[in-house]
Amino acid sequence: MTDAPAPTRTPCPPQHGIIAAHARAEEVAAASADFLEQTVVGSLLLEGAGGTWAPATGLAPVPRAPSFAILFPGAVRVSDPAVPLEKTADYLRGAVAAIAPWARPGATVVLGSGASRRIPEGVDRAAAERRFADSVRTARDLAAEHGLEVLLEPLHQGETDLVNTLEQATDFLDAHELSGMRVVADLFHVMLERESFETVHRLAGRVGHIHVADTDRRPPGQGDWPLGEFLTALRDGGCAAHVSIECFTWQDIPAEGRAALEEVRAADPAAS
């Protein structure tokens, strides 16, 4: 299979957003976020009868966004050679069709989904890696047809046993002739995997999007993680990507989100 054409990468100053479901768009806007990074599974794409998935209907208009997250549900097994690749492709066609109407030109789609890519019991690791690479390539190509760019996100070992660090992510892409793809740098996973900021700096040129949180995935400013050092390593290494806050402990997005975004913008050398 030949490489898909690269999606348009529109130059613009980095912006700062919040990851949330479509239903929380007004709360995210009230927090002064530059964008809502919409979740795909369970928000833009809904499960129907018989395990089928279809784009959600009747959603309120929101501004187009530069990034989207949570591409696969756990039931879509993207590293299992026993699952026909065409079944994964069918799911992806629906997913990118659901994303496209809400996306800016060249928007990124984060491929994390730890449960989906976990190696099934009894499956040879090399075979699982090959099938995962095929799934990643399929996602890349189908997204590119809509002007979207899929990014591989390394996830810590508590979430998956396949691609845990930035180093592993770039090595994986290179080993499977996917070197034109970029990755996501997520402070949460970097901290849990104890990956050095020297490595973050060295690989910054291959980073297409940034996720941040504070200790225990709380909003930035509510813990003691080195947000400024992380963002400085990326910016000094040549990364100009947008930044999204990814937290699961929100009590009040308008209030907490505004304070968290102030922390992120103050810590980001590229903030305008």
UniProtKB/TrEMBL annotation:
One of its GO terms (molecular function) is isomerase activity. It holds the Pfam family AP_endonuc_2. Keywords: Carbohydrate metabolism, Isomerase. SUPFAM superfamilies: Xylose isomerase-like. Residues 86-262 form the Xylose isomerase-like TIM barrel domain. It comes from the Bacteria. PANTHER family: HYDROXYPYRUVATE ISOMERASE, XYLOSE ISOMERASE-LIKE TIM BARREL DOMAIN-CONTAINING PROTEIN. This is Sugar phosphate isomerase/epimerase. It comes from Candidatus Brachybacterium intestinipullorum. The lineage of its organism: Bacteria, Bacillati, Actinomycetota, Actinomycetes, Micrococcales.
